[in-house]
């Protein structure tokens, strides 16, 4: 829409909780008009179904979704279907495969990334934290191609980028490339991957990652698939570094952190306390089967837990859907969140903690002056949207109607 000042009418908003015998049994809602000017919500007013405006047809308005762990530069989306190969079992197997395939993938990566972003839009996602390969095979081509795709999609998506040494920092000669990437304005976080199993040391690669973040005023987002002793030592090392360097507090994350899923209850409580004390967050794709992350315990202690899809039709995983509501639904099922109140709270995993109602049922979103980043969904309330993975019918990003 060229004119970014407009009104939405017949918009369903959550206004509170209804109780019965002390239990929250329903979410109260009402129809409203929403005035949007430029990239902000200007006013929330009484509904005027006969007035001028775009008809939302009674659909529920929710905050737009945020995918906090993706690999936009490196996936098979847009290529012929290909399931995961049983022959590639380790991260080093994957590195060898990527070294062979990346030159071919790069030929179409800009166009395919744009298509993938379009698919994520269809599920209501408007913000993405994407890791981008920095490695000797692709050099900076993966980054430059991703930047080009994001530029083409600048009116419909925002992103923050992690310089990701997927092929190891020292296992392949990536150190000089990572140092150069750390200086780039496009990069927001310094990444890493399994320092002990890939590079043969926890300290050497982690020292570099931390120093690059400090020297270049970046955050840290480390891929850590390692379990057991090496995984826990790496997490402890990073916590200690953040405690030594408070500038990293609140901008340091461990993605996956599978080691946390295999601890005793007392050990989990202890590490959750330390993560919270240091302000180190966890980014999870919500694995299940043999690895169920202790997300409730982490959140109980105040650890920031971010959620992302990670793999979306790529050579690592066959099942990625790109749907953040589906991720929230999976969390609800895994951890037994089935009541109206619990399901409504679970929406926070898709929106990075923005919720229409606070825990007591007081309306807190939207307010005049909020960013006009929102979705309309076919649902009566947040709880239903999570439980039924409701269809997203419209996405608005910074006041612009994407669809």
Structural summary, described in words:
By secondary structure, the chain is an alpha/beta fold. It folds into two domains: 99 residues, Urease, subunit C, domain 1; 257 residues, TIM Barrel. Helices cover 34% and strands 26% of the residues. Strands 6-7-8-9-10-11-12-13 form an eight-stranded parallel β-sheet. A four-stranded mixed β-sheet has the order 3-2-1-4, with no helix packed on it. Strands 5-14-15-16 form a four-stranded antiparallel β-sheet, with no helix packed on it. Helix 7 runs parallel beside helix 8 and helix 10 crosses helix 13. It is globular.
State the order of secondary-structure elements, H for helix, E for strand: EEEEEEHHEHEHEHHEHEHEHEHHHEHEE
Would you tell me which CATH topology of the largest domain applies? TIM Barrel
Measured as a percent range, the helix fraction is: 25-40%
Q: What order do the strands of the largest sheet run in, or round the barrel if closed?
A: 6-7-8-9-10-11-12-13
InterPro entries: Amidohydro_3 (IPR013108), Metal-dep_hydrolase_composite (IPR011059), Metal_Hydrolase (IPR032466), Metallo-hydrolase_Enzymes (IPR052349)
Domain Amidohydrolase: 211-403
Protein name: Amidohydrolase family protein
Pfam family, one: Amidohydro_3
Defining key terms:
TIM Barrel, Urease, subunit C, domain 1, four-stranded mixed β-sheet, globular, eight-stranded parallel β-sheet, alpha/beta, 403 residues, 2 domains, Metal-dep_hydrolase_composite
């Amino acid at each position: 829409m060229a004119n970014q000042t407009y009104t939405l009418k017949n918009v369903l908003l959550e206004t509170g909780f209804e109780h019965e015998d002390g239990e929250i049994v329903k979410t109260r809602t009402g129809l409203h008009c929403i005035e949007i000017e430029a990239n902000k919500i200007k006013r929330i007013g009484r509904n005027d179904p006969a007035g001028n405006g775009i008809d939302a047809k009674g659909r529920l308005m929710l905050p737009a979704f945020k995918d906090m762990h993706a690999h936009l530069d490196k996936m098979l989306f847009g290529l012929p279907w290909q399931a995961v190969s049983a022959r590639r079992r380790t991260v080093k197997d994957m590195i060898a495969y990527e070294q062979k395939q990346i030159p071919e993938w790069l030929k179409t990566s800009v166009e395919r990334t744009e298509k993938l972003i379009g698919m994520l839009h269809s599920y209501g996602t408007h913000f993405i934290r994407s890791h981008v390969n920095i490695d000797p095979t692709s050099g900076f081509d993966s980054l430059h191609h991703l930047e080009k795709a994001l530029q083409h999609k600048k009116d419909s998506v925002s992103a923050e980028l992690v310089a990701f040494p997927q092929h190891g920092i020292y296992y392949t000669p990536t150190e000089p490339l990572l140092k150069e990437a750390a200086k780039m304005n496009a990069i927001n976080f310094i990444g890493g991957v399994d320092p002990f199993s890939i590079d043969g040391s926890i300290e050497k690669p982690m020292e570099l990652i931390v120093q690059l973040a400090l020297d270049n005023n970046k955050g840290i987002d480390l891929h850590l698939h390692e379990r057991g002793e090496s995984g826990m030592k790496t997490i402890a090392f990073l916590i200690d570094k953040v405690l030594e360097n408070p500038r990293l507090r609140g901008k340091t994350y461990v993605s996956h952190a599978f080691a946390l899923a295999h601890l005793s209850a007392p050990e989990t409580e202890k590490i959750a306390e330390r993560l919270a004390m240091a302000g180190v967050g966890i980014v999870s794709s919500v694995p299940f089967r043999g690895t169920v992350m202790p997300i409730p315990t982490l959140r109980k202690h105040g650890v920031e837990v971010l959620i992302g899809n990670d793999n979306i039709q790529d050579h690592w995983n066959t099942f990625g859907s790109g749907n953040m509501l589906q991720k929230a639904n999976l969390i609800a099922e895994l951890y037994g969140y089935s009541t109206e109140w619990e399901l409504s709270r679970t929406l926070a995993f898709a929106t990075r903690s923005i919720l229409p109602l606070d825990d007591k049922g007081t309306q807190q979103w939207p307010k005049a002056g909020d960013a006009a980043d929102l979705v309309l969904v076919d649902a009566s309330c947040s709880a239903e949207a999570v439980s039924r993975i409701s269809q997203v019918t419209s996405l608005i990003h910074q006041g612009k109607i994407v669809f």
